[in-house]
Amino acid sequence: MAATSYGVNHPLAVKVWAKKLFVEALKSTYASKFMGKGSDALCQIRSELNKGAGDRVTVGLRMQLTGAGIQADGTLEGNEEALATYSDNVYIDQLRHAVRSGGKMSEQRVPFSVREEARSGLQDWWADRIDTWFFNQLAGNTAQTDTKYTGNQATIAPSSKILPASVNAADELSISSTEKFSLNYIDAAKELAETRSSLPIRPLMVGGQKKYVCFLHPYQVYDLRTSTSTGQWLDIQKAAMDGGKVSDNPIFTGALGEYNGVILHSSTRVPQGVSTAGAAVANTRRAIFCGAQAALMAYGENGDGEMSWVEELFDYKNQLGVSAGMIGGLKKAVFNSVDHGVIVIPTYAASHTA
Predict the structure, then answer these.
(1) With contact defined as beta carbons under 8 Å apart, do 342 and 294 qualify?
(2) Are 323 and 21 in contact (CB under 8 A)?
(3) Where are the domains positioned within the chain?
(4) CA separation for the pair 288, 203 (Å, rounded)
(5) pTM beyond 0.90
(6) Residue 204's beta-bridge partner residues?
(7) Which fold has domain 11-38+45-62+83-147+295-335?
(8) What is the pLDDT along the chain (354 residues), one digit of tens a residue?
């Protein structure tokens, strides 16, 4: 019986494995459900560099006109209003990783394909890395200075924060143990999102309804769940159950629940608070309240649907090495020095296990 196989670096194998790696890695990310090419996505994917040269994607924002206008036969000429526009840009760079087999004898001892296991391992690595980019950028985690973990570009400190009452001089280092996460913070964040004079935060459109998203660390979720105050988690969950609040939209998938038009999600990648000295603060976490176009992600020419996939043989063709790379970048959207779709909520958050 004839069998078809593709050897190391066969052109068809390279293309198939590159495409498969990208699709599976992105599908495995937590962030993928919040990504899309439309302007209503929480993280908007920009494809301008897919087929052209360059290392930055520039995104423009036109502000709303604010003039009073001219009534009746009043003279309009000379009373026109100038357009106010701002821009932001996403830097893209190449990031690669690789695995290498121990040799043919090592491969002989195991009942699986080293090539397949390499793809699986790199898939997990890339999924983890993209999610790390996503949360470090949205939270403005300036304590992380290695751009390999921040979307291939530096993070930017939050322009909008809702701080606990105990915080002195806006230093998150002074957050006290009495300042735990509660639904009151969500109410405050939504109010700020809707009334912020510099740049109101536009909600996501989910099934024709306006929604925001808030990411919490599991420590903050515990504090929220165990609050016995009136109107906190228990009462909200009862109301949600009675109202039949369900949806098959991916933004609802895995959600903790919904409160005041805000869909709540939990992730261990929500980073710690950051002191004014730029250091991570123990026993704190930065909850992240988001609207539309909170972040931007861009790919290079090989990024829209595939990654690079290179196989090499080493040590007289005894060892197989596989590398996978992507040219891309992820960044929090900032226009005129204001976070476009993000409000950060630092609170006390400590482990509740011994």
Answers:
(1) yes
(2) no
(3) 11-38+45-62+83-147+295-335, 157-294+337-348
(4) 14
(5) no
(6) 211
(7) Major capsid protein gp5 fold (3.30.2400)
(8) 444 444 555 555 566 667 777 778 888 899 989 998 888 889 988 876 555 566 777 777 666 666 778 877 788 888 877 767 677 788 889 899 998 876 665 555 443 466 777 888 888 999 999 999 999 999 999 999 999 999 999 999 999 999 988 888 889 999 999 999 999 999 999 999 999 877 889 999 887 889 999 999 999 999 988 876 656 666 666 555 444 555 567 777 788 888 899 999 999 999 999 999 999 999 999 999 999 999 999 887 655 556 888 888 888 888 888 888 888 899 999 988 999 999 999 999 999 885
